[in-house]
From TrEMBL:
InterPro entries: DUF1468
Residues annotated as domain DUF1468: 15-163
Key words of the record: Membrane, Transmembrane, Transmembrane helix
Taxon lineage: Bacteria, Pseudomonadati, Pseudomonadota, Alphaproteobacteria, Rhodobacterales
Protein name: Tripartite tricarboxylate transporter TctB family protein
Regions crossing the membrane: 12-34, 46-70, 91-109, 115-132, 139-162
């Protein structure tokens, strides 16, 4: 089902896809030029693949916005479907702003409390805040699972540096 060209949702997807694609390209080029290449999987591999993945996904979002193909979930009505366009835009921008603040807080907290606690806290706050998850066992499991899993994969298996924290040092 195609939406008309003047639809605000299409315009939002084109703008978001364009901004994310530019960021992904800048990120990928920066990683390629600044992080030294190693033999096999080195310190450049994961950030480079993140940049490539973001570029592909943002290009798909941009294409979706340009073509205008939207499929609503089967029989489901979106919670903000009846809201006027300006209210829906304000709600979405609020989520984007909240996630941006959470990511900035993660960058500030990581050298102070360490990678694992900062990651667990960031995942938990993101799940509870913008995503609205209220099942505390799920939030706790995902926060600890992602934080410890990333620490094991990157810090222990791949040997990447993971900050331990200047205020507290758990890992």
């Amino acid at each position: 089902m195609a939406k008309p060209a003047h639809d605000p949702e299409r315009r939002q997807d084109v703008i978001a896809g364009s901004i994310l694609l530019l960021f992904a390209l800048a990120w990928t080029v920066t990683v390629w030029l600044t992080v030294p290449d190693g033999y096999g999987v080195g310190p450049r591999a994961f950030p480079l693949w993140l940049g490539v993945a973001l570029a592909v996904l943002s290009a798909l979002l941009l294409l979706k916005g340009m073509i205008g193909v939207y499929e609503p979930p089967l029989g489901e009505k979106q919670p903000d479907e009846d809201a006027p366009d300006r209210i829906r835009l304000r709600m979405r921008l609020g989520v984007v702003a909240t996630v941006t603040v959470i990511i900035a807080a993660f960058g500030w907290l990581m050298p102070k409390i360490g990678f694992v606690p900062a990651t667990a806290l960031t995942v938990a706050v993101t799940l509870v805040g913008p995503l609205g998850e209220r099942r505390w066992l799920l939030v706790l499991g995902m926060a600890l699972g992602i934080a410890v899993g990333a620490w094991l994969a990157f810090g222990q298996i791949l040997g990447a540096y993971m900050p331990s924290g200047s205020w507290i040092s758990i890992f």
